[in-house]
Design a protein that fits this description.
Distance between the termini: 14 Å
Structural class: mainly alpha
Mean pLDDT: 83
Oligomer: single chain
Number of strands: 0
Largest sheet: none
Number of helices: 4
Shape: elongated
Order of helices and strands: HHHH
Amino acid sequence: MTKSQIGSFSFILLFLVFVGLYFTASSGYYETEERKKMTLTEEQIERFEQDVADGKQVDIENYLKLNERNYDNSISSTTLQISNKIGEYFEKGLNAFFNAMASAMNES
């Protein structure tokens, strides 16, 4: 690869990463998930206060649970392992790519 090809490839790659992150941020996915957690917490506080007012036996563990279902199965475990391996290879590839870019820049 020549210096111009490396530069073009890196620019296109960074642009695609930027576009992906931009659309993720603009969709509000993270904010929606955080709002769900906050709503659950407010509901748990109200339930705790009501139980204290009613004089019921209170155990803090009952109010700290996040009522999330566990969807783990053999397929999800396998795909998680595959995803982790892909992540490792992707990291190695990026490191090699940036090392190649650094060496190309240092040659000039």
